[in-house]
Design the sequence.
């Protein structure tokens, strides 16, 4: 009988996908749970990924005319009440501050004291507090458009949490803009959706379906919500980013008005849009395998790990010198406008143990160098988009000169693999029966159908199948048909899936 293949991560994806996900994060040292219920500590390797996400997106935001600012983490309760649908949407997730200090009760215990006249909400999102500033900053049409972005943390009091995907506190960016016309605001909303699409596909190597949310799924208080949806390896959908056209709803609530060129007073048209550390969770679930994290090169904290293999102590000096020169030469190569990032692993550990450590952390390329490689002026290379045993020898100088091409090949390989997986698990159905049959399977994937969605149908699908409408795709969705549930004419198709 053949011996079962051993993997670094236990359980495997097929055995217990949710626990596999947690173990990948642990093995890669991305994050850990916090003593504060529902919160997480992001460890240096995980935070380095977030810093790369920040740097790339921040450049895109500035390229599209946005400037960074920072607003208070506390929001007066009355601010949320200015937009009724908004407060209803977030009321159950709000962390509320009611007192200003702690006092000793005489027994050594601290108790809240100094009750506030008005409770403060720890921001779940910042439309209302930023709207208050916008109402003062916008006076004339000359002040528009106003384009602001904030890098911040938010709190949503989640009951069931999972690292990166859903935590009580998480990091994100939130863009907020104000415009003179509805057309300008809608253009902004779609422009930022496109920024997200390009970033997630080009850097995280995650193919997405992008489109408009149905009425039951849109952001509380928005006129339209647009989304990008990615398929994870358990074939569930992950909402990876959203962009909202808010119309004049929040402008009226926050009194954001301006004087037009013809001296007429009007309310501004506003937008908001954001992505969060959830992107890291999506990256983990889209690419990783049963040996650990797989990190696309364009977003990886480091690109190459060099592992000296020293069988005898007297060989250490020559092998380490060779590896140091290799690291220096690799760092001279430019990838995406920056030096190739190299980790030289000189820890006093066995070479195999080091290699598995880097495999579990998702390093795109690992290089093993021993005495024989010095003799041949060679390196022994492993790529993270291939199995751990699929290593190959290569001329040292050729490897250095080709490092950028190799990194890009890995990047494209991961995207192609994820796209093929998504396409293979996406189906179009043309009847209610076929729809229900598809979702009898836990791993149904994406199901596309003509549909006229309404609240009652949304509730029924959630109750019967735990399925939601993910989006109405913006591309290739112009062929009318009949709703598979009502039989009535339906202009658009909708993507359905189980989701996170």
Sequence:
């Amino acid at each position: 009988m053949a011996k079962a293949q051993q993997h670094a991560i236990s359980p495997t994806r097929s055995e217990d996908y949710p626990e596999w996900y947690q173990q990948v994060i642990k093995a890669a040292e991305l994050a850990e749970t916090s003593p504060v219920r529902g919160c997480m500590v992001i460890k240096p390797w995980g935070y380095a990924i977030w810093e790369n996400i920040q740097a790339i997106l921040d450049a895109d935001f500035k390229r599209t005319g946005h400037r960074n600012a920072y607003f208070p983490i506390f929001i007066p309760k009355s601010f949320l009440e200015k937009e009724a649908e908004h407060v209803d949407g977030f009321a159950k997730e709000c962390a509320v501050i009611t007192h200003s200090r702690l006092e000793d009760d005489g027994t050594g215990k601290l108790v809240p004291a100094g009750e506030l006249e008005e409770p403060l909400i720890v921001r779940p999102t910042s439309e209302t507090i930023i709207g208050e500033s916008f109402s003062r900053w916008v006076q004339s049409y000359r002040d528009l458009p106003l384009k602001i972005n904030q890098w911040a943390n938010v709190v949503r009091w989640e009951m069931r949490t999972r690292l990166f995907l859903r935590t009580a506190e998480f990091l994100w960016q939130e863009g907020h803009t104000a415009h003179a016309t509805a057309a300008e605001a809608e253009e902004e909303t779609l422009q930022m959706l496109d920024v997200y699409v390009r970033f997630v596909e080009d850097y995280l190597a995650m193919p997405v379906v992008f489109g408009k949310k149905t009425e039951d799924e849109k952001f509380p208080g928005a006129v339209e919500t647009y989304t990008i949806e990615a398929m994870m390896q358990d074939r569930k959908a992950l909402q990876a980013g959203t962009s909202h056209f808010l119309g004049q709803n929040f402008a009226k609530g926050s009194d954001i008005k301006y004087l037009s060129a013809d001296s007429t007073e009007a309310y501004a048209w506003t937008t908001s849009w954001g992505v969060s550390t959830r992107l890291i969770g999506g990256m983990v679930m889209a690419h990783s395998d049963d040996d650990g994290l797989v990190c696309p090169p364009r977003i990886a904290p480091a690109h190459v790990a060099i592992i000296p293999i020293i069988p005898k102590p007297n060989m250490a000096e020559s092998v380490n010198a060779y590896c140091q020169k290799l690291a220096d030469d690799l760092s001279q190569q430019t990838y995406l406008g920056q030096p190739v990032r190299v980790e030289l692993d000189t820890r006093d550990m066995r070479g195999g143990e080091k290699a598995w450590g880097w495999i579990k952390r998702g390093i795109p390329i690992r290089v093993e160098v021993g005495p024989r490689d010095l003799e041949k002026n060679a390196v022994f290379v492993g790529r993270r988009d291939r199995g751990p045993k699929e290593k190959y020898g290569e001329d040292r100088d050729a490897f250095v000169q080709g490092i950028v091409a190799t990194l890009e090949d890995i990047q494209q390989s991961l995207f192609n693999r994820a796209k093929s997986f998504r396409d293979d698990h996406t189906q179009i159905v043309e009847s209610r029966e076929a729809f229900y049959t598809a979702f009898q399977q836990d791993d149904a994937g994406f199901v596309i159908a003509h549909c006229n969605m309404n609240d009652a149908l949304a509730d029924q699908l959630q109750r019967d199948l735990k399925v939601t409408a993910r989006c109405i795709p913006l591309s290739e969705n112009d062929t009318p048909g009949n709703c598979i549930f009502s039989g009535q004419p339906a202009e658009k198709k909708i993507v359905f899936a189980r989701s996170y």
In short: The longest strand covers residues 110-122. Residues 403-424 form the longest helix (22 residues). The chain has a mean pLDDT of 95. The CA atoms of residues 235 and 445 lie 4 Å apart.
